[in-house]
Write a structure and sequence with these properties.
Layout lengths: L1 H20 L5 H30 L3 H31 L1
Length: about 90
């Protein structure tokens, strides 16, 4: 779980750099992202991890379903952030 906890810190640095590069024009968006970073880092991430461990336990098939769902979610999230970045760049 230690790698899981480090992700919000990495994401925070990305948000900060993006805000600097846009001369603070993303202050409201930055607040939105920081709120989610805080929730994920403080509560939601750990709770989700515990929930998945309790649901899957030693059932290999359930872990495969979880892994495939996670991959699908990450692909969708990347598409969302790519579209947001494109919107920021194109202004």
């Amino acid at each position: 779980m230690s790698g899981f906890l480090a992700f919000p810190n990495v994401f925070q640095r990305i948000v900060d750099e993006l805000n600097v590069k846009t001369d603070g024009r993303l202050d409201v968006f930055k607040y939105y992202l920081e709120r989610h970073i805080g929730l994920d880092g403080d509560e939601h991430g750990l709770m989700a991890n515990c929930l998945i461990e309790q649901l899957c336990q030693d059932d290999q098939e359930k872990w495969i379903v979880v892994e495939l769902a996670a991959i699908k979610t990450l692909v969708a999230r990347k598409q969302l952030w790519d579209a947001i970045l494109k919107g920021i760049i194109e202004g």
